[in-house]
Amino acid sequence: MLSSEAKAAHKIGLTPNRVSAIGFTLAILSALTYATTKGQPLQLLLATILLLASGFCDTLDGVIARTYHQTSPFGGFTDSLLDRYADAAVYAGIILSGLQVYVFWGLAAIAGSLLVSYTRAKAEAAGITMESIGLAERAERMIILALASLAAIFWLPALNFGIILLAVLSNLTVLQRTLHVYRTLKKNQKTEN
Q1: What CATH number is associated with residue 122?
Q2: Distant-in-sequence, close-in-space partners of 116: CB < 8 Å, separation ≥ 6
Q3: How many structural domains compose the chain?
Q4: Is-catalytic flag, 83?
Protein backbone atom coordinates (compact mmCIF):
# COMPACT_ATOMS: atom_id res chain seq x y z
CA MET A 1 0.00 0.00 0.00
CA LEU A 2 1.33 3.42 -1.06
CA SER A 3 4.57 1.88 -2.27
CA SER A 4 4.61 3.90 -5.51
CA GLU A 5 3.89 7.11 -3.60
CA ALA A 6 6.65 6.25 -1.11
CA LYS A 7 9.06 5.60 -3.98
CA ALA A 8 8.21 8.95 -5.59
CA ALA A 9 8.55 10.80 -2.27
CA HIS A 10 11.88 9.11 -1.55
CA LYS A 11 13.12 9.94 -5.05
CA ILE A 12 12.58 13.68 -4.50
CA GLY A 13 14.37 13.53 -1.16
CA LEU A 14 11.49 13.35 1.30
CA THR A 15 12.40 11.56 4.52
CA PRO A 16 9.83 10.16 6.96
CA ASN A 17 10.48 13.10 9.30
CA ARG A 18 9.91 15.63 6.53
CA VAL A 19 6.67 13.93 5.52
CA SER A 20 5.58 13.95 9.19
CA ALA A 21 6.32 17.68 9.35
CA ILE A 22 4.35 18.30 6.15
CA GLY A 23 1.42 16.29 7.53
CA PHE A 24 1.52 18.23 10.79
CA THR A 25 1.56 21.54 8.91
CA LEU A 26 -1.44 20.43 6.84
CA ALA A 27 -3.31 19.49 10.03
CA ILE A 28 -2.62 22.93 11.54
CA LEU A 29 -3.84 24.57 8.32
CA SER A 30 -6.95 22.38 8.49
CA ALA A 31 -7.53 23.45 12.10
CA LEU A 32 -7.17 27.13 11.18
CA THR A 33 -9.53 26.70 8.22
CA TYR A 34 -12.13 25.00 10.44
CA ALA A 35 -11.76 27.76 13.06
CA THR A 36 -12.45 30.53 10.55
CA THR A 37 -15.03 28.85 8.29
CA LYS A 38 -18.30 30.14 9.81
CA GLY A 39 -20.09 27.46 7.81
CA GLN A 40 -18.92 28.58 4.37
CA PRO A 41 -19.07 25.50 2.10
CA LEU A 42 -15.79 26.11 0.27
CA GLN A 43 -13.89 26.59 3.53
CA LEU A 44 -15.40 23.40 4.95
CA LEU A 45 -14.33 21.60 1.80
CA LEU A 46 -10.81 23.06 2.07
CA ALA A 47 -10.57 22.10 5.76
CA THR A 48 -11.59 18.54 4.85
CA ILE A 49 -9.09 18.30 1.99
CA LEU A 50 -6.30 19.55 4.27
CA LEU A 51 -7.36 17.04 6.94
CA LEU A 52 -7.28 14.14 4.48
CA ALA A 53 -3.94 15.28 3.02
CA SER A 54 -2.55 15.32 6.56
CA GLY A 55 -3.81 11.78 7.11
CA PHE A 56 -2.24 10.69 3.82
CA CYS A 57 1.12 12.07 4.98
CA ASP A 58 0.70 10.28 8.31
CA THR A 59 0.40 6.98 6.46
CA LEU A 60 3.09 7.78 3.90
CA ASP A 61 5.79 8.62 6.46
CA GLY A 62 5.56 5.14 7.95
CA VAL A 63 5.65 3.46 4.53
CA ILE A 64 8.77 5.42 3.57
CA ALA A 65 10.42 4.61 6.90
CA ARG A 66 9.78 0.87 6.59
CA THR A 67 10.51 0.60 2.85
CA TYR A 68 13.81 2.48 2.99
CA HIS A 69 14.90 1.27 6.44
CA GLN A 70 14.69 4.73 7.97
CA THR A 71 12.84 3.75 11.11
CA SER A 72 14.11 4.94 14.46
CA PRO A 73 12.68 5.03 17.98
CA PHE A 74 12.88 8.83 18.03
CA GLY A 75 11.21 9.09 14.62
CA GLY A 76 8.32 6.94 15.83
CA PHE A 77 8.08 8.99 19.02
CA THR A 78 8.09 12.30 17.12
CA ASP A 79 5.51 11.06 14.61
CA SER A 80 3.18 10.00 17.42
CA LEU A 81 3.69 13.29 19.26
CA LEU A 82 2.92 15.37 16.16
CA ASP A 83 -0.18 13.25 15.52
CA ARG A 84 -1.53 14.06 18.99
CA TYR A 85 -0.94 17.79 18.52
CA ALA A 86 -2.57 17.59 15.08
CA ASP A 87 -5.65 15.81 16.43
CA ALA A 88 -6.08 18.28 19.27
CA ALA A 89 -5.61 21.27 16.95
CA VAL A 90 -8.23 20.08 14.47
CA TYR A 91 -10.82 19.42 17.19
CA ALA A 92 -10.01 22.77 18.80
CA GLY A 93 -10.45 24.50 15.45
CA ILE A 94 -13.87 22.91 15.06
CA ILE A 95 -14.88 23.87 18.61
CA LEU A 96 -13.73 27.47 18.05
CA SER A 97 -15.54 27.73 14.71
CA GLY A 98 -18.95 28.25 16.26
CA LEU A 99 -20.43 25.65 13.89
CA GLN A 100 -23.12 24.47 16.31
CA VAL A 101 -20.64 22.09 17.94
CA TYR A 102 -21.34 21.54 21.62
CA VAL A 103 -18.17 22.27 23.59
CA PHE A 104 -18.70 19.29 25.91
CA TRP A 105 -18.74 16.84 23.00
CA GLY A 106 -15.77 18.53 21.36
CA LEU A 107 -13.74 18.26 24.56
CA ALA A 108 -14.84 14.63 24.99
CA ALA A 109 -13.67 13.93 21.43
CA ILE A 110 -10.28 15.52 22.15
CA ALA A 111 -9.89 13.57 25.39
CA GLY A 112 -10.92 10.30 23.76
CA SER A 113 -8.60 10.85 20.82
CA LEU A 114 -5.61 11.50 23.07
CA LEU A 115 -6.44 8.62 25.39
CA VAL A 116 -6.76 6.11 22.54
CA SER A 117 -3.08 6.69 21.82
CA TYR A 118 -2.12 6.92 25.49
CA THR A 119 -3.69 3.55 26.32
CA ARG A 120 -1.84 1.95 23.42
CA ALA A 121 1.49 3.45 24.51
CA LYS A 122 1.05 2.39 28.14
CA ALA A 123 -0.06 -1.12 27.16
CA GLU A 124 2.83 -1.60 24.76
CA ALA A 125 5.24 -0.35 27.44
CA ALA A 126 3.89 -3.20 29.58
CA GLY A 127 4.47 -5.66 26.72
CA ILE A 128 0.83 -5.93 25.62
CA THR A 129 0.10 -5.71 21.89
CA MET A 130 -2.69 -3.27 21.01
CA GLU A 131 -2.76 -3.54 17.23
CA SER A 132 -6.39 -3.43 15.99
CA ILE A 133 -7.90 -3.22 19.48
CA GLY A 134 -10.84 -0.83 19.49
CA LEU A 135 -13.33 0.62 17.05
CA ALA A 136 -11.89 4.08 16.44
CA GLU A 137 -8.18 4.24 15.78
CA ARG A 138 -6.79 7.37 14.14
CA ALA A 139 -7.62 6.43 10.54
CA GLU A 140 -11.25 5.68 11.40
CA ARG A 141 -11.56 8.93 13.36
CA MET A 142 -10.20 10.95 10.44
CA ILE A 143 -12.60 9.28 7.99
CA ILE A 144 -15.59 9.96 10.27
CA LEU A 145 -14.56 13.59 10.70
CA ALA A 146 -14.02 14.02 6.96
CA LEU A 147 -17.42 12.50 6.13
CA ALA A 148 -19.16 14.65 8.76
CA SER A 149 -17.40 17.74 7.39
CA LEU A 150 -18.45 16.95 3.82
CA ALA A 151 -22.02 16.35 4.96
CA ALA A 152 -21.90 19.68 6.84
CA ILE A 153 -21.39 21.47 3.51
CA PHE A 154 -25.01 20.57 2.75
CA TRP A 155 -26.41 20.29 6.30
CA LEU A 156 -24.38 22.11 8.95
CA PRO A 157 -25.57 20.08 12.00
CA ALA A 158 -23.88 17.00 10.49
CA LEU A 159 -20.56 18.22 11.87
CA ASN A 160 -22.00 18.30 15.38
CA PHE A 161 -23.32 14.75 15.01
CA GLY A 162 -19.93 13.68 13.70
CA ILE A 163 -18.18 15.15 16.75
CA ILE A 164 -20.65 13.40 19.09
CA LEU A 165 -20.03 10.11 17.27
CA LEU A 166 -16.25 10.63 17.55
CA ALA A 167 -16.52 11.41 21.26
CA VAL A 168 -18.52 8.23 21.88
CA LEU A 169 -16.43 5.94 19.67
CA SER A 170 -13.03 7.19 20.82
CA ASN A 171 -13.94 6.85 24.48
CA LEU A 172 -15.46 3.44 23.78
CA THR A 173 -12.13 2.49 22.19
CA VAL A 174 -10.35 3.58 25.37
CA LEU A 175 -12.70 1.33 27.34
CA GLN A 176 -12.10 -1.60 24.94
CA ARG A 177 -8.34 -1.17 25.28
CA THR A 178 -8.57 -0.90 29.05
CA LEU A 179 -10.54 -4.15 29.21
CA HIS A 180 -8.04 -5.80 26.86
CA VAL A 181 -5.15 -4.79 29.13
CA TYR A 182 -7.03 -5.98 32.21
CA ARG A 183 -7.82 -9.38 30.68
CA THR A 184 -4.29 -9.84 29.34
CA LEU A 185 -2.66 -8.95 32.65
CA LYS A 186 -5.06 -11.23 34.53
CA LYS A 187 -4.36 -14.09 32.11
CA ASN A 188 -0.59 -13.53 32.39
CA GLN A 189 -0.86 -13.50 36.19
CA LYS A 190 -2.68 -16.87 36.18
CA THR A 191 -0.06 -18.47 33.92
CA GLU A 192 2.72 -17.26 36.23
CA ASN A 193 1.12 -18.86 39.30
Answers
A1: 1.20.120.1760
A2: 134, 136, 137, 138, 141, 170, 173, 174, 177
A3: 1
A4: yes
